[in-house]
Amino acid sequence: MDTLFFVISKLAWGLLSPLNLMIWLTLLGVLLAWWGWRRFGGTLATLGFALLLANMAYPFGDLIIQPLEARFHKPHPMPDDVDGILILGGGESLGRSLSWQTPELGLGGDRYVAAAYLARLYKDVPVIFAGGSGSVQLQDTGKEGDIARTLLTQLGIPPNRLIIESSSRNTHENFRNVRLMLPKPDGRYLLITSAFHMPRAVGVARKVGVNVIPYPVDYRSYKPPYRKVDFDFFDHLKSLEPGWKEWIGLTVYYLSGKTGQWLPAETEQ
């Protein structure tokens, strides 16, 4: 069932990705117009093209992702003690790492930087990594854990402090699998993941019984004073795509019982 859920989620995203939707809408409109449905096809093509232009001109994705990124905050002050530092995978670029046989960071590389900082702040606690391959095509490479271990040790964390879980393929499996490896099942763990992903991660952690203290990183949006018309389409996709995907993920996880709340908050309701 877990494998079916994983595969369906990846296939569905291929259809529901905002960029793909805009392109499909434009192409469908052109095809319909070519087949004789000129008015309807022209309307669809115009709508798809207008959405592409609008998102090229302005970061509308910021409006989608910012409520997620603002949902949780770094603890202030920091806790006096914790039982471990838990970093979720996603900061590494698996395909490029395998291609070039060297550990490569992706857009979520801030997760590793935060892990190194917190490991220096809390010198005697384990650093726990949870994350396998989220790609259907790159399953069973056996390299996800090795890449994480190499990156974390290169950042100065001693190997004997590391606990690596690399068989999970999504957020639910992250916590379900790593829960069995926690040195103190009832302990408190600083949780590092992207800010937009933190609500879903916290929701799953609460559902499976892992006590986490959110430490969000990897912010993708600009706040209003810095949000400009700049025609940087690829930069705008950095907030549009993950923001849209995360709202879908929150909804699916809630409906499938993987979280107890649709949009978890800092104070459990």
TrEMBL record:
CDD domains: YdcF-like. One of its GO terms (biological process) is peptidoglycan metabolic process. The keyword Transmembrane helix applies. Residues 83-249 form the DUF218 domain. The chain crosses the membrane at residues 12-37, 43-65. Pfam families: DUF218. Keywords: Membrane, Transmembrane, Transmembrane helix. One of its GO terms (cellular component) is plasma membrane. The keyword Ubl conjugation does not apply. This is Uncharacterized SAM-binding protein YcdF, DUF218 family.
